[in-house]
Amino acid sequence: MHASPAASLLVSLHASSARPCGRSGVSGAVERGVHYIEAHLSEPLQLSAIAQAACMSRFHFARRFREQTGLSPMEYLRMRRLERARQLLRVDGQRIGQVASELGFYDQSHFVRWFRRSLGCTPSAYLQDVRAGGACP
């Protein structure tokens, strides 16, 4: 999975503190949205909840988010969940079903489908490659 420079920048935003709603501008709203996503990564999330945390309507937030990052809020959420899944599989050695459940995927097959679409291999193939010392994405 290749992240755009804007998406990489957003990944670093989750470490910053969330600002309350106010006159912090559009980039502040996107930052609040990213912070909310990061804080609730394992929960089922809807665009309306993320937009509310960013103090914007969901349509306005989605438009601004895409303008600033090149991704929709839900694409960003899925990207972050899959990055976290790779970490959990690689470092923590959790089972695929546990990872799927922990990261808010509907079920294991839903998780496997998105993992394959994003990385080009299944989670089990990814684990085998990591264990064999391969250079997986």
Give an account of the 3D structure:
Helix 3 packs across helix 4. This protein folds into two domains: 5-72, Orthogonal Bundle (Arc Repressor Mutant, subunit A), CATH 1.10.10; 76-131, Homeodomain-like (Arc Repressor Mutant, subunit A, Orthogonal Bundle), CATH 1.10.10. It is built from eight helices and no strands. The radius of gyration is 16 Å and the shape is elongated. It has helices spanning 5-13, 25-39, 47-53, 58-69, 73-92, 96-102, 108-119, 123-131.
Write the layout of secondary structure elements.
Elements: H1 5-13, H2 25-39, H3 47-53, H4 58-69, H5 73-92, H6 96-102, H7 108-119, H8 123-131
Task: Record keyword descriptors for this entry.
137 residues, mainly alpha, Arc Repressor Mutant, subunit A, 2 domains, 8 helices, 66% helix, elongated, disordered N terminus
Under CATH, the topology of the largest domain can be stated as Arc Repressor Mutant, subunit A
Global outline: elongated
Number of helices: 8
Q: What is the string of SSEs from the N terminus onward? A: HHHHHHHH
Low-confidence stretches: 1-18
Sheet-strand content, in percent, reads under 5%
Which structural class should the secondary elements be placed in?
Answer: mainly alpha
Helix content: 55-70%
Main sheet properties: none
List how many beta strands DSSP finds. 0
State the end-to-end CA separation: 6 Å
CATH class assignment of the largest domain: Mainly Alpha
